[in-house]
Write a structure and sequence with these properties.
alpha/beta
Amino acid sequence: APSLKIVSRHGVGYDAVDVGALNARKIPLAIVGDVNSGSVAEHAMMLILAASHRLVRADQSVRSGNWGWRNKLEASEVAGKRLLIVGYGRIGRNLARMATAFGMEVVAHDPYLEKAGWPEGSVKPASEFNAALASADVVSLHVPKPDRPVLGADELAMLKKGAIIINTARGGLVDEAALAAALTSGQVGAIGFDVFDDEPPAASHPLTGFDQAILTPHNAALTVECGERMAVQSVQNVLDFFAGRLDAGLIVNKDKI
């Protein structure tokens, strides 16, 4: 594509884009900005509720005729539970607002934001990550893909027995093999995952064998409304670029072009 001038992502993630190749040609890579944070936060809140109330097991009990499952009292309320949000950007803040409305006690861990200045009137920062894990009933992840899992076997062992883990951010944030072992042992009570190391996951993926796992196909942002906003904004970025008014905050590689 010798005439290529700009790449505009239909979304905010750019894992599939060869940024280095764009940098070498000084071609900007634009993302759509804050158009999907509400959709993803809603999805995360849905997964928290579904995992807490063991929604898959409840649904299966009706379909299989096992009406008596309800008497096991496996479902749990979220009100009064502590939610640890790891990564307190736009999605994390939207989720905090929703979870607070459900009566959850919300804390957030974000060392980068703490250095920059914690937002006034916001939820309590949890500076010490290991201590925050140990006190959390639910952990929801909202950070970029790391070099190593945020939650590996050691971190999973620090959780309260029966804790719930939610991941609507990126595959690789949780060691999936260690997570399967923790679900088997009961160390982790339930999960809600929208993302996986390999997508789509294989039919034999270890997490698909657990009925206390709510699994969705990386569609947290794929609502009708969000799809429209992403489409409009991604095209607007191209128009703005050629008009010389593209918001620098939407350019991923602005320091390289």
